[in-house]
UniProtKB/TrEMBL annotation:
Classification lineage: Bacteria, Bacillati, Bacillota, Clostridia, Peptostreptococcales
Organism: Terrisporobacter mayombei
The entry's keywords: DNA-binding, Transcription, Transcription regulation
Record-given protein name: HTH-type transcriptional activator RhaR
Superkingdom assignment: Bacteria
Alphabetical list of PANTHER family matching this protein: ARAC-FAMILY TRANSCRIPTIONAL REGULATOR, HTH-TYPE TRANSCRIPTIONAL REGULATOR EXSA
Length: 340
């Protein structure tokens, strides 16, 4: 995996993320912003409090806010978990790191709340400005705004921090999937061809699986014979046959194919057996084993990869079915074929 290829803008669809962030802010009653690894905002601030906005616009006080942000982010990275802390005005903030493949890519910063239970035992106050005359004057000037800050218990803050952390972990998993897809795409078009920079345009975590499936089919098609079904079938059954040959990586079921043909499952099964001369399950198994043989002969894909690419539930099941029809395991078949 090439780490330099992973960027947050390839992981997050920022238009959709901004909407999600805004909704998270409403639900949690916290201000939220997403920053890159340098601390630069990569999203708009969701629900920034009037007090914090006023302090951050103050030429002398903004440096303390920045110091809190910087230290909070560093502590979150160091511990690789959410870091809950107090700013110089005893306001609670949370830093949730976004770490991808061992690299710190950015963070979700949340907070701008006060504790209703005054629980501060496990929390660090990063900067102490209690004796700073300018800090005291600013607090007095914006006291009305300070009193309007939302109140949460420490337990509520912990729960929100853990929820945001789980969301980050989900994004990381999708990011790794996306990077693997990129590598698959490069292999499918050939390493000597120029990568289409718009390849991921419009894709987000919502449709990653569809993209993976499409690329899986592209990879399989690169090695498997492109001949379709050699039997003539009725117009009723044809949509299912076309679907099977165009979606080699999918775990196809009778139920789904009956829906594709817009007929009942029982009628589909009878019609399929009559026209194809075999039951649906046997036909699919034999067809996928034939595709697997071509992949074993012409590609360097592992048995586990072939199992996954052809939509088998697990390698063990693939090996069992392969041996049922070929009399040997996939590994033995490949070894025998290579020695021919």
């Amino acid at each position: 995996m090439k780490k330099e290829k992973i960027n947050l803008d390839k992981v997050i669809d920022f238009k959709k993320w901004q909407t999600l962030q805004d909704n998270l802010s409403l639900v949690t009653n916290m201000a939220i912003i997403t920053v890159d690894y340098k601390g630069n905002p990569i999203s708009k601030h969701s629900k920034c409090s009037r007090f914090c906005e006023s302090v951050r616009n103050h030429p002398q006080m903004v440096k303390y806010c920045q110091k809190c942000d910087s230290r909070g982010g560093l502590e979150a990275v160091r511990s690789n978990e959410p870091y809950i802390y107090l700013c110089h005005y005893n306001i609670v903030d949370v830093a949730v790191p976004i770490i991808i493949d061992g690299r710190y890519m950015g963070a979700i910063m949340a907070g701008q709340v006060k504790l209703s239970d005054n629980y501060t035992e496990d929390m660090e106050k990063i900067v102490d400005t209690s004796n700073n005359s300018v800090s005291i004057e600013v607090l007095e000037e914006f006291k009305e705004y300070y009193e309007q800050l939302p109140l949460l218990t420490y337990k509520e803050v912990q729960n929100i921090a853990n929820m945001l952390s789980s969301l980050c972990n989900y994004l990381v998993e999708e990011a790794l999937d996306k990077n693997l897809i990129l590598e698959m795409y490069k292999k499918s078009i050939g390493n000597n061809k120029e990568l289409d920079e718009d390849f991921f345009q419009g894709y987000s975590v919502d449709n990653i699986e569809k993209l993976k499936k499409g690329l899986s089919n592209a990879v399989i098609d690169a090695y498997v014979s492109q001949y379709g079904c050699d039997k003539k079938v009725s117009s009723t059954l044809k949509p299912a046959i076309d679907y099977i040959y165009k979606n080699k990586s999918e775990n196809i079921t009778v139920e789904s194919m009956a829906k594709v043909c817009h007929i009942s499952q029982s009628y589909f099964s009878r019609l399929f057996s009559k026209e194809m001369g075999d039951s649906f399950s046997n036909y699919i198994s034999k067809l996928k084993i034939n595709w697997a043989k071509e992949l074993l002969e012409d590609s360097d894909m592992s048995v586990s990869q072939i199992s996954d690419e052809l939509g088998f539930n697990e390698p063990g099941y693939f090996i069992k079915i392969f041996k049922k029809y070929e009399g040997v395991t996939p590994s033995v078949y490949r070894k025998y074929y290579k020695n021919m």
